[in-house]
Amino acid sequence: MFIKDLLKEFTFDLQIKNYSKRTIETYNYNVGQLINFLETHHDISDVEDVSSLHIKKFIQYQKEIGNKPNYINTIIKSLRAFYSYLVNEEYVSLNALAKIKLLKEDKIVIKTFTDKIASMWQSTLNRRFFMLIKSAGIRPVNFLSLVQG
């Protein structure tokens, strides 16, 4: 059966299950990317002709065009949902994404202050508080009660 027809049926099923409009659009777009890739690069339009090798080539293609691993993982998750639907509805006997794993995503490392920078900020802060006390005429006892309480 044609993959495009099955995508329409899958989209209809998602609407019946009351998925959000945004989720349906994302699934539709991501599966549509696979369909376009299969038609242009492998001349495949029938769902039974798709193998896990084609899916891996699609993932490789996504990497080559510069998509980041977390975006490609979103595509893989959409394709998994689509293929789970196809298996449940018995359009395919084997899930082509069963052994496809998510890509390793880059960890975001947040740079923190070094001890030197932290002590520099602390000394600047202490100087500012001293200047505030001096220029405003605040007694040190009153200032300490503001800071502590």
From TrEMBL:
Pfam families found in the cross-reference section: Phage_int_SAM_4 (PF13495)
A GO biological process held by the record: DNA integration
Core-binding (CB) domain location: 1-87
The keyword DNA-binding is assigned to this record: yes
GO molecular function, one term: DNA binding
PROSITE patterns in alphabetical order: CB (PS51900)
Alphabetic keyword roster: DNA-binding
Family annotation (InterPro entries): CB, DNA_brk_join_enz, Integrase_recombinase_N, Integrase_SAM-like_N
Protein name: Core-binding (CB) domain-containing protein
Annotated organism of origin: Peribacillus simplex
